[in-house]
Design goal:
Elements lengths: L11 H19 L9 E5 L7 E3 L15 E3 L18 H10 L5 E5 L2 H7 L10 H4 L5 E4 L11 H8 L4 E4 L3 E6 L2 H22 L10 H16 L1 H19 L4
Parallel strand pairs: 5-6
Antiparallel strand pairs: 1-2, 1-4, 2-3, 4-7, 6-7
Helix pairs in contact: 1-8, 2-5, 3-6, 6-8
């Protein structure tokens, strides 16, 4: 995408994060995982304040840029002047996680059709396909309480998430969080692929070949090891950005 000049009052580290987050929004749009103007991706800013960046409510993901991302505190208050507000449905989830999990710097919430279909099934994700096996032991489940608007739900969502990085919001969608934007995007891609294949397999006749817990755990452990290696997720993210540029052009 074409370069955008960093404002003088924006630190270099923050601007770099803004660019990466804007790319993430564009990649989610490019991948077809958007829900029009809804859903949210947040990235925690460096420092002890737990401030984070999030999309302006009302813009399509394809319209998000480094400059128009909102900077908010854990109460959802804007910290800089903007003509836009944030989606209030995102505060309970994002502020809860950013306030409590120092190991999660990026949180992505989606409800694509396959993910939402799995989220409403009693058993949630199975672990019998290549991607589903990689999620073994890594998923928390949170009972549906309606639209996530209220602060009292924060503690319950955190309890449901535990020390995991994937939270299935029952009858709703999913939230995935990781220590970087690149890692979070790769994790979302894995979750999305697991849901797509699970739904396709469920529509076919015949019994699934069930994987053992031992094999599923092995897959999950190997994937977690790859995620911990920064270069793996960065290479994947950069490759997806190049693919997007080649197909969509290169301009904010």
């Amino acid at each position: 995408m074409s370069p955008v000049t960093r404002p003088e009052n924006c630190p270099e580290a923050e601007w770099a994060l803004r660019e990466q987050l804007a790319y993430c929004y564009r990649l989610v749009d490019f991948s077809g995982w958007t829900e029009t103007i809804f859903n949210h991706i947040s990235a925690r800013l460096p420092g002890p304040t737990h401030h984070y960046l999030v999309n302006p409510f009302g813009l399509n993901y394809s319209e998000v840029t480094p400059a128009n991302l909102l900077k908010v505190d854990l109460d959802g208050h804007k910290l800089e002047v903007s003509e836009y507000d944030a989606n209030p449905a995102g505060f309970a989830l994002h502020s809860a996680v950013h306030g409590a999990r120092d190991d999660i710097h990026c949180l992505i919430h989606t409800h694509t059709t396959p993910i939402s279909a799995v989220a409403q099934k009693q058993n949630g994700f199975d672990h019998n396909n290549f991607y589903g096996a990689q999620l073994y032991g890594r998923v928390g489940y949170h009972a549906f309480e309606g639209i996530t608007l209220f602060a009292d739900e924060k503690a319950r969502m955190l309890d449901s998430l535990g020390n995991k990085h994937i939270l299935v919001l029952r009858n709703h969608g999913v939230a995935v969080g990781e220590s970087s934007i690149e890692k979070a995007f790769f994790l979302l891609w894995t979750v999305q692929r697991a849901a797509e294949i699970q739904c396709q397999a469920a529509a076919m006749g015949g019994e699934d070949v069930a994987l053992s817990d031992e094999i599923a755990q092995k897959c999950a452990d190997l994937t977690a090891m790859l995620i911990r290696e920064d270069d793996f997720a960065v290479k994947f993210f950069k490759a997806m950005v190049r693919k997007m540029h080649a197909e969509k052009g290169a301009s904010w």
